[in-house]
Amino acid sequence: MFRVNENYGKLQGSYLFSTIARKVAAFTEANPDKKIIRLGIGDVTQPLTDPVIRALHSAVDEMGNAETFHGYAPDLGYAFLRETIAENDFRSRGCNISADEIFVSDGAKCDSGNIQELFAEDSRIAVCDPVYPVYVDSNVMAGRAGNYNPETGRYDRVIYMPCTAENGFAAELPDEVPDIIYLCFPNNPTGCAISLEQLQRFVDYALKNGSVIIYDAAYEAYISEEGIPHSIYEAEGATKCAIEIRSFSKNAGFTGLRLGYTVVPKELKCGDVSLNSMWARRHGTKYNGAPYIVQKAGEACYSPEGKQSIRELVGYYMKNASAILEGLRDMGYTAYGGVNSPYVWLKTPGGMSSWDFFDYLLENANVVGTPGSGFGAAGEGYFRLTAFGTHENSLAALERIRKL
Ligand code: MLT
User: Fold this and answer.
1) Of 256, 275, 302, at which residue does a domain stop?
2) What letter would DSSP give residue 8?
């Protein structure tokens, strides 16, 4: 009889956003007349921009012509996109990253779930708490997380770095030395960012202790303040200890199109083993590359017009973020984030649990958010609202919350 990967049995419930979708579907079925406003999952609502649409149309036409047709994409990504990324996202910021250190993929979620394959089975991981669930769950599946303790809400082999109001939601250095440190800044779910100095402390720690940092920078386009790093490679020495993951979903609205990339610097080595070569080998074996038409759409994001359209798109969502943040504070809520990120992280009123507040909001305001405890034990008592709704819905949701 075949056996299954028993680590899957250690996962807690279903994926957070699937649980929410099921709860909302049940509520809608029971209350078909209620108009729900969804500010739960960080999915965009605004259409793709004109430069992107034009690039898609033109690439589709190329695919319909024998002379310009493209079959399998190069598995690491087309050179036109990798060069453009290296120049615009890194070298223009003084980060020494070259095209052959960029690996194009169909999105940051897959890369952040798959990257753990490069590391030894018994590696110890450190994560922020609260945390984007993919980092933990993918390591649970791989058998690295140990057992789940229902009393603490934590896995016994995972090292947690609490992000709390007291520490400004900036993770503190771990108590025990991990092999792999996952960081996401601007942070999902708290919406808070860290300074270059704070990030440098992590890089120095990783270099000193022989740890590797997996840095998820999916929300970097939302940084509005000075002194906040857009890439971990702004920190000195990071090319020797860090992998960075980026997404086109949140800045250019590609959640339905799928495009992302991972940077694995050639200097990043374990002894004389190059992680860049390992990731290239993995891509070659398991992946056939993001579609040509989508990579052309990605390239269009970097033209002057493309950059301007992204600034406008991000500006649209940030207007929501600031309305939500200020609106909640005005109502007396304690709320964070929303300045360098499209997420607002609020304290639930009256000490309500995160899931109780989720139900309360769904039933009484017909507004969907994300319970903080779904992101980890330290998220209990918090709740996340996203700024990715339409402007009208963001304001309407606030009005409904005000009336509670
Ligand atoms: C979220 O809501 O946390 C994100 O949309 C999840 C994701 O990007 O996969």
Assistant:
1) 302
2) G
CA 296 to centroid of ligand 1, rounded, Å: 24
Q: Using one digit for the tens of pLDDT, what is the confidence trace for 142-161?
A: 999 999 999 999 999 999 99
* CA atoms of 369 and 37, how far apart (whole Å): 9
Entry pTM: 0.96
Q: Which atom of ligand 1 is nearest to the CA of 249?
A: 8
- Cα(136)–Cα(128) distance, rounded to whole angstroms? 10
Q: Where are the alpha helices (DSSP H) in 16-150?
A: 16-30, 50-63, 79-85, 108-114, 133-141
Residue at 4 is within a domain: no
Domain boundary among 302, 332, 356: 302
**CA 345 / ligand 1 centre spacing (Å):** 14
C-beta pairs of 115-121 under 8 Å, 24+ apart in sequence: 115/214, 115/243, 115/245, 115/262, 115/279, 116/142, 116/144, 116/180, 117/142, 117/282, 118/275, 118/278, 118/279, 118/282, 119/179, 119/180, 119/212, 120/179
- 43 within a domain of the structure (yes/no): yes
Could you tell me the residue range of the domain that residue 327 belongs to? 9-47+305-402
How far away, in angstroms, is 400 Cα from ligand 1 center? 24
How far apart are the C-alpha atoms of 160 and 183, rounded to whole Å?
A: 11
Q: Which residues line ligand 1 (CB under 6 A)?
A: 41-43, 109, 132, 188
Give the tens place of pLDDT for each residue, 181-222. Answer: 999 999 999 999 999 999 999 999 999 999 999 999 999 999
Q: How far is CA 309 from CA 46, 252, 257, in A?
A: 12, 8, 17
Q: Which numbered atom of ligand 1 lies nearest the CA of 370?
A: 2
Residues 68 and 190 in one domain: yes
- Is there a single domain that holds both residue 102 and residue 20? no
CA of 209 relative to ligand 1 center, distance in Å: 31
Distances, alpha carbon 44 to alpha carbons 34, 38, 218, 400, in Å: 22, 11, 13, 21
* SS3 (DSSP) at 105: strand
CATH number at residue 151: 3.40.640.10
Q: Are residues 143 and 208 in the same domain?
A: yes
Q: How far is the CA of 208 from the CAs of 55, 147, 183, 212, 275, in angstroms?
A: 45, 29, 17, 11, 19
Whether 127 is covered by a domain: the verdict is yes
